[in-house]
């Protein structure tokens, strides 16, 4: 399996996307620290603070099982393997992994489709998970950043996702990237918990002529 | 959209991914489509799953149970061999199959998805009413009082759990007695179970008619077959219960210790009055007099609430649920009975409320209903809307309470308070609000046919647009949906607003015509009136303010967004409201002075010309308003309240500016964030309005940049000043309600915090403070960490 | 409140791109007419092709019987059935529970039966 540090974009160019997690590239936030999602679980191994996390995209069927194993562990909602297939087979270029050496420690799964009425491309972050011992290292932020960039490269006008009301770390993560909570969804999940619809507009699609109506 | 109409609500919860993806796919259009269809949607909603299933199977699907057509051929080995030829990741799939639909597939043997997994075969077949009778596990006759109390209390608990959003089958119809009350010989039990069944039917009707439920609030549908097995006869319930009560009471008289039996009587009586009250709500649409009907409802509610302490005190006289059992009572309930008839992924962990908290719920619900009855006193739009807003804040959690208020107020979009036409109600409302002379039937201008024609057109338009009625209805929805619907409503106000402005200018035009004709009286009455546009604008402003501030309540705004959110009401919206109300008060005052002046002239004229009787009457009439001149400021309280809001918004706006400049607000990564887009999106529903005109981001930015020029310390001090102003205004309010006291505490605390920060406290620590909204939905207490 | 409102001109510029074509290694064998007569397919694939769309009866490890239209499988025999009916035990005369779409993981499959004419009479269909 190709464990290089490269991601392949659709045009076939290879670019090195090494994001060292200790030096977040363009974050001008002074006090933002994501916290682990499940705080009562102890990290099961000691990790060096300066570990290097590498990122890679989906390029091999065997990675599907990895997506499944990382996400099943971390998310409350149950998914069958065909759900993963739906996303990963249709949008392999929007699936990214974080690796520590040989070990897969995080994954993001997205899709990008034309919006039903406007035909503008809408990105959707379906799943994001980082293994417990690797939290608090901005791995999630880096994965989301890569996904956003990949979707912007493919002309996404906006990117949406849903997350649980109680998932403060995830909310903080997305908010730090400029997502806003657009809508509250009552009893959205199977467990009866409320959710938020989060949205990031990658470009202003408000019609030009309507902005002239402004004062 | 089609999918969500056709699928029973339970399917919604199917596999999360499918739902999520489908939502991502479709829900963006919700605002467009669902809102357009919002009223018809709810009508489509009441299709039972049975009907839906028929529709689906009629749409070309086949009945799987008719297979095999040829016969089963074992292919186990061949199949696995064939699969092994597939490459990793390769799929063999039907040409009509897509991965999207595969997402909705339930994974068999997955404990989270597969309900059938681990089904205990000992349970086969699941005990039905008949089976339970045959097995002798339920008694049909001569139940002890303890058994009766236990079953009654358990059924009330199930009823409450149903109202809280659980499916009817999984709570109420786990009670085997409800399946066939006619076969119960024990009279109290039969009467009670029949009443429960009718109560379910009536409650369903009320909720369907009110149309303010959403799939996430309440599951309307359940085992319709079971409910339909015996016909609902709501009119017979009260007499039937009464008869059983009476005979029990007679029996009690012969008992040495009748307490237990009386506890049964109290429950039957409670059921009778609760049922009767709710049934009368359902009948409101046909009531001859809304006053009388509501009076009766209120009386029944009163008796029910008086019985409550007697019932709560005797809960322990009933049989109690067995520890560790899912059944709410040892006899008569079979919790798993409907598992096999449920949709594939129904929620498995049903929590039935315990008995004390169920009665607590009922007690609170009854007092909510009693409060809702007060709607009858609110005869005009302004006060009715205020009542609805208040009620929504206090009783918004309970779908039945919300629906009951809707039913009590309006039985259709054209009728309110029983049989009053909406048009008449709105006319009356404008008259109450700012009293345009043209609406005063006694005023000579009212008989002007041209004027009447314009008025007729305007009010017909209001009804057809349904905007005002809808604003009230929106208050009945759950808080999250209210915001979505308000966004849409605000847009509608604009067209009404245009029409109102046209009406106002027509009146002015007519004033000029009448002046030319020499009809001074008509001309004066018609001139310079902005009555109608002020009325519409005022309501539009209210909708805008509720929309904007509801984002705090729903926790939609990030801390870094607070600045522009508080800025808009501070800079514009609250000011608009204050000026609309002040203008209204001024109009009322001017009119009154004019009327006084007019009647003085008349009085003088008539006394000189004789006819003393008339003049005496006139004098009396005109004397009154003069005495009550102070009371002619009907909006005083509200204006003061808005002054306080203005200062609080100003305080928060400047506090956020100071905190931001001080580096204490976490800002999003500039790489993807775009404040202008965020700003535009947050104020999007206002963009379509011509009045008030939308405020561009550039304009906001100018104002903010200018405001943020002073030093951090100065900014904190400015914010403190606003909070101090708010405190002053709030302290001036006499007999303050709890909300005012809460706002006062917020103003005081934030004043102190701002001053502390202005003095350079924690200067080096650039930590974002906590914003604690627990005191008020719109304003936080700022807490330093 | 159109969320993604655009002007007409923008719409022309931003026509929806075609869906991303599924590339290797996500190979798909279907029973579509253009594939059904593909002689180059391996015998196993051809057999699966023939079964797709027919009714499959699966016995699973806890004894339940699932009957539904065979929609999809992968190498591990993770089978997707549509309009699936669930029977708790083998045998006649039971009320099934209707499950809609289900995915039966290969590891839980005990036996598979397909509804098709007995091999002897299959010549009629050829």
TrEMBL record, chain A:
Signal peptide limits: none
Family: Belongs to the acetyltransferase family. MAK3 subfamily.
Organism annotation: Drosophila willistoni
Domain of life: Eukaryota
Annotated ranges, domain N-acetyltransferase: 53-203
Matches recorded under Pfam families: Acetyltransf_1 (PF00583)
Entry GO terms, CC: NatC complex
Record's keyword terms, sorted: Acyltransferase, Transferase
Polar residues bias (residue ranges): 1-11, 19-34
Protein name in UniProt: N-acetyltransferase domain-containing protein
GO molecular function: protein-N-terminal amino-acid acetyltransferase activity
Stretches the record annotates as Disordered: 1-40
From TrEMBL, chain B:
Keyword match Cytoplasm: yes
Span list, region Disordered: 318-348, 600-631
Biased composition (Basic residues): 618-631
Highest taxon listed in the record's lineage: Eukaryota
UniProt family annotation: Belongs to the MAK10 family.
Keywords: Cytoplasm
Gene Ontology terms: cellular component: NatC complex
Segments forming domain NAA35-like N-terminal: 88-183
Main location: cytoplasm
Any matching Pfam family: Mak10
Domain (NAA35-like TPR repeats): residue spans on this chain: 372-782
Protein name: Protein MAK10 homolog
Lineage per the UniProt record: Eukaryota, Metazoa, Ecdysozoa, Arthropoda, Hexapoda
InterPro entries tied to this protein: NAA35-like_N, Naa35_N, TPR_NAA35
Location in the cell: Cytoplasm
TrEMBL record, chain C:
Protein name: Sm domain-containing protein
SUPFAM superfamilies named in the record: Sm-like ribonucleoproteins
Domain of life per record: Eukaryota
Molecular function per GO: RNA binding
Coiled coil start-end: none
CDD domains: LSMD1
Residue ranges of every copy of the Sm domain listed in the record: 43-118
Ranges of compositional bias, category Polar residues: 1-12
UniProt similarity note: Belongs to the snRNP Sm proteins family.
InterPro entries, A to Z: LSM_dom_sf, LSMD1_Sm, Sm, Sm_dom_euk/arc, snRNP_SmB/NAA38-like
Chain residue ranges for the region called Disordered: 1-22
GO cellular component: NatC complex
Lineage: Eukaryota, Metazoa, Ecdysozoa, Arthropoda, Hexapoda
Cross-referenced PROSITE patterns: SM
One Pfam family matching this protein: LSM
């Amino acid at each position: 399996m190709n464990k290089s540090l490269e991601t392949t974009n659709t045009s076939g160019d290879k670019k090195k996307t090494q994001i060292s997690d200790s030096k977040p590239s363009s974050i001008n936030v002074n006090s933002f620290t994501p916290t682990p999602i499940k705080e009562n679980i102890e990290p099961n191994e000691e990790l060096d603070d300066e570990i290097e996390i590498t990122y890679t995209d989906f390029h091999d069927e065997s990675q599907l099982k990895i997506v499944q194993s990382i996400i099943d562990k971390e998310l409350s909602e149950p998914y069958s393997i065909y759900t993963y297939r739906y996303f990963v087979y249709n949008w392999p270029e929007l699936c990214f992994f974080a690796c520590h050496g040989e070990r897969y420690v995080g994954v993001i799964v997205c899709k990008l489709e034309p919006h039903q009425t406007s035909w503008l491309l809408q990105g959707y972050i379906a799943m994001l998970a980082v293994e417990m011992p690797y939290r608090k290292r901005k791995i999630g932020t880096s994965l989301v950043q890569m996904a956003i960039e990949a979707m912007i490269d493919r002309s996404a006008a906006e990117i949406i996702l849903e997350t649980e009301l109680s998932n403060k770390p995830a909310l903080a993560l997305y908010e730090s990237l400029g997502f806003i909570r657009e809508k509250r969804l009552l009893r959205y999940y199977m467990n009866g918990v409320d959710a938020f619809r989060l949205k990031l507009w990658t470009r202003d699609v408000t019609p030009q002529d309507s902005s002239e109506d402004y004062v | 959209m089609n999918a969500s109409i056709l699928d029973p609500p339970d399917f919604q919860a199917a596999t999360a991914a499918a739902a999520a993806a489908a939502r991502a796919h479709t829900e963006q259009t919700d605002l467009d489509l669902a809102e357009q269809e919002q009223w018809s949607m709810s009508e489509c909603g009441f299709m039972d799953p049975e009907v839906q299933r028929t529709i689906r199977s009629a749409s070309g699907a086949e009945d799987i149970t008719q297979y095999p057509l040829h016969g089963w051929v074992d292919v186990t080995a061949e199949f696995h061999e064939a699969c092994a030829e597939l490459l990793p990741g390769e799929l063999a799939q039907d040409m009509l199959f897509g991965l999207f639909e595969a997402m909705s597939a339930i994974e068999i043997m997955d404990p989270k998805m597969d309900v059938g997994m681990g089904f205990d075969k000992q349970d086969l077949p699941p005990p039905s009413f008949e089976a339970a009778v045959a097995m002798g596990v339920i008694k049909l006759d001569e139940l002890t009082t303890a058994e009766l109390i236990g079953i009654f209390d358990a059924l009330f608990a199930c009823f409450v759990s149903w109202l809280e959003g659980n499916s009817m089958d999984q709570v109420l119809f786990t009670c085997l007695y409800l399946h066939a009350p006619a076969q119960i010989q024990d009279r109290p039990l039969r009467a009670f179970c029949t009443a429960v069944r009718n109560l379910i039917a009536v409650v369903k009707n009320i909720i369907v008619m009110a149309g303010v439920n959403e799939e996430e609030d309440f599951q309307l549908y359940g085992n319709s077959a079971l409910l339909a097995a015996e016909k609902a006869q709501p009119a017979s319930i009260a007499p039937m219960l009464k008869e059983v009560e009476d005979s029990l009471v007679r029996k009690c008289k012969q008992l040495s210790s009748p307490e237990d039996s009386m506890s049964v009587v109290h429950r039957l009586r409670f059921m009778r009055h609760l049922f009767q009250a709710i049934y009368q709500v359902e009948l409101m649409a046909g009531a001859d007099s809304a006053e009388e009907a509501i009076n009766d409802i209120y009386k029944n509610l009163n008796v029910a609430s008086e019985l409550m302490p007697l019932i709560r005190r005797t809960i322990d006289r009933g049989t109690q649920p067995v520890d560790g059992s899912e059944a709410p009572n040892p006899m008569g309930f079979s919790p798993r009975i409907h598992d096999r008839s449920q949709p594939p992924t129904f929620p498995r962990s049903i929590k039935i409320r315990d008995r004390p908290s169920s009665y607590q719920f009922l007690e609170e619900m009854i007092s909510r209903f009693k409060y809702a009855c007060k709607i009858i006193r609110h005869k005009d739009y302004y006060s009715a809307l205020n009542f609805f807003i208040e009620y929504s804040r206090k009783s918004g959690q309970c779908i039945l309470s919300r629906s009951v208020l809707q039913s009590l107020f309006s039985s259709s979009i054209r009728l309110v308070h029983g049989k009053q036409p909406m048009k008449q109600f709105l006319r009356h409302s404008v008259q109450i609000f700012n009293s345009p002379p043209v609406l005063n039937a006694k005023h000579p201008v009212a008989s002007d046919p041209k004027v009447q024609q314009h008025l007729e057109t305007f009010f017909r338009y209001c009804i057809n647009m349904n905007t005002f009625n809808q604003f009230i209805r929106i208050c009945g929805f759950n808080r999250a949906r209210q915001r979505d619907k308000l966004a849409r409503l605000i847009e509608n106000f604009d067209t009404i607003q245009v029409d109102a402005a046209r009406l106002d200018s027509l009146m002015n035009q007519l004033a000029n015509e009448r002046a030319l004709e020499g009809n001074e009286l008509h001309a004066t009455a018609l001139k310079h009136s902005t009555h109608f546009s002020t009325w519409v604008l005022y309501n539009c402003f209210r909708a805008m303010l509720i929309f904007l501030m509801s984002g705090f309540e729903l926790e939609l705004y990030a801390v870094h967004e607070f600045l522009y959110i508080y800025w808009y009401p501070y800079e514009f919206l609250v000011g608009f409201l204050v000026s609309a109300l002040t203008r209204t008060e001024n109009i009322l005052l001017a009119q009154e002075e004019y009327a006084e002046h007019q009647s003085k002239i008349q009085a003088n004229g008539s006394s000189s010309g004789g006819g003393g009787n008339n003049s005496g009457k006139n004098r009396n009439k005109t004397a009154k308003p003069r005495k009550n001149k102070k009371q002619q400021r009907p909006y005083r309280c509200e204006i003061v309240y808005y002054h306080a809001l203005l200062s609080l918004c100003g305080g928060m706006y400047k506090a956020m500016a100071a905190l931001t400049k001080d580096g204490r607000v976490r800002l999003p990564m500039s790489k993807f964030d775009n404040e202008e887009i965020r700003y535009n999106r947050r104020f999007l529903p206002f963009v379509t309005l011509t009045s008030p005109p939308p405020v561009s981001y550039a304009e906001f930015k100018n104002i903010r940049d200018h405001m943020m020029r002073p030093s951090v310390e100065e900014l904190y001090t400015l914010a403190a000043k606003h909070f101090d102003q708010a405190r002053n205004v709030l302290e001036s309010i006499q007999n303050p309600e709890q909300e005012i006291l809460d706002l006062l505490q917020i103003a005081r605390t934030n004043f102190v915090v701002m001053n502390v920060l202005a003095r350079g406290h924690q200067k080096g620590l650039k930590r974002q403070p906590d914003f604690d909204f627990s005191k008020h939905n719109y304003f936080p207490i700022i807490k330093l960490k | 409140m159109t969320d993604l409102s655009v002007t007409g001109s923008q719409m022309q510029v931003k026509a929806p791109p075609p869906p991303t074509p599924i590339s290797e290694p996500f190979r798909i064998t279907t029973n579509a007419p253009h594939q059904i007569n593909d002689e180059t397919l391996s015998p196993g694939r051809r057999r699966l092709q023939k079964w797709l769309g027919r009714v499959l009866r699966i016995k699973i490890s806890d004894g339940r019987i699932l009957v539904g239209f065979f929609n999809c499988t992968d190498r591990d025999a993770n089978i997707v059935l549509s309009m699936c009916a669930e029977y708790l035990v083998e045998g006649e005369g039971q009320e099934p529970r209707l499950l809609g779409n289900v995915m039966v993981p290969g590891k839980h499959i005990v036996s598979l039966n397909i509804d098709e004419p007995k091999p002897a009479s299959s010549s009629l269909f050829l």
